[in-house]
Amino acid sequence: MTTNIEQTLTNLSSQQKLQLIEQLRRKTEKANSSPVDLVDFSNFTERPVYKKMKQQIIQLEAIGFKNPYFKINQGIAKNTTKIDGQELINYSSYNYLGMSGDPKVSQVAKEAIDHYGTSVSASRLISGEKPIHLELEQEIANLVGAEDALVYVGGHSTNVATISHLFDKNDLIVCDLLSHNSIIQGCLHSGASLFSFAHNDWQALEKILQEKRASHQQALIVIEGVYSMDGDIPNLPQFIELRKRYKTALMIDEAHSIGVLGKSGHGIGEYFGVNPTDVDLWMGTLSKSLASCGGYIAGNKALVEYLKYTAPSFVYSVGISPPNAAAALAAIRLLNSEPERVERLAQRAKLFLKLAQEHELNTGLSQDSAVIPVIIGNSLQCIQLSEALFHRGINVQPLIYPAVSENTARLRFFISCTHSEEQIQFTVEAVADELKKIQS
Ligand code: PMP
């Protein structure tokens, strides 16, 4: 647990810190005293982990596929993108509301650079903050209906930092089996007893709570507003009910639901019409609907204040840059003044799902969200389909093991409100057509 050490270090004098580090060093020295094979770090090309990773790419290329990763997008990725000079209909970025690249959002970000520079260069706690930091946090709090919010510089690190800081070895954390890597990392770093329940199965969660809750101090349930691999939504009222009955905290990762769910895009809370105070930690990312980079936690005032003064990756890390803060702020204000973007997104996603189902494509559990998988099963066929679509002018990323479980390889389509109905019709027909060719 990084935070066991870090939390302790935060509260110690320099002299005490040195003593503690010395104690830890002696402890690990003892544990590592038996002889081991030396590994030469400088010869990284020979390291088994590197060779294994390289082999997978070489194998793909050997059977005639292009490396599907790190494609270079030449320009703004919205409903279309440009790769290798070719204009493609784009389904590979989470620009759900078309905010990234919107001239109004870009203009506000440019003005923030002129006013505040490109970096705040240090921790907000130490060197002070900018008015846009506080304005952004207030807008986020308003968006989800919480008392307050704080913004970290990354979405992934928001989960790792917050979970590992608030929970420790005396606690219980229960998360969905399909939780995002950042949630799992946060849980592991906390040192808490970690259990997972079958995807979206709140009854399975209840069984774990019945058995384990009483022997732990704090307990946390972590779920997502929309699951990023499948595009489905948890039954939030049931999870809230369990939170109350078993006196747990409830955290929701709204990376893919903020700006998407609910009539005005206020997320899963609005979608189900729940009381926002029934969720303890509203987490979200700024990188998707909100056209920026970073993550947030919204919740009650005391909790946010505590994190602002003590969460190591907030206290010891730089504040979000002025253009990023301004872009997210502008995106939220635009979302509020143009809620028709959310409606258009829902309509386009619905159309995609309907057409895909009419063509008997396997869209799995996807419902009411902007993430629509087309499950192929076989990894090679999935990569083949992605390449065939690329040649038809469609950019969609294949997802294969280990990103998803064996035999559930898929193409994952992120719908944007900027997609036209014609682009969606053309895409679904092309997918059905090319898949038939591959499987015949
Ligand atoms: N949570 C979920 C559910 C995600 O899908 C992602 C990334 N796509 C993150 C957190 C991390 O967000 P970011 O990419 O903004 O760091």
UniProtKB/TrEMBL annotation:
Co-factor requirement: pyridoxal 5'-phosphate
Give the family, as the similarity comment puts it: Belongs to the class-II pyridoxal-phosphate-dependent aminotransferase family.
Q: What residues does the Aminotransferase class I/classII large domain cover? A: 87-430
Q: Which residues form a coiled coil?
A: none
- Keyword Nucleotide-binding listed? The answer is no
Q: What is this protein called?
A: 8-amino-7-oxononanoate synthase
Q: Which UniProt keywords apply?
A: Acyltransferase, Pyridoxal phosphate, Transferase
Q: Which top EC class is given? A: transferase
Q: Which PANTHER family match?
A: CLASS II AMINOTRANSFERASE/8-AMINO-7-OXONONANOATE SYNTHASE, LD36009P
Q: What EC number(s) does this enzyme carry?
A: 2.3.1.47
Recorded GO terms, molecular function?
A: 8-amino-7-oxononanoate synthase activity; pyridoxal phosphate binding
Q: Which organism is it from?
A: Microcystis aeruginosa NIES-4285
Q: Which Pfam families match?
A: Aminotran_1_2 (PF00155)
Has keyword Transferase? yes
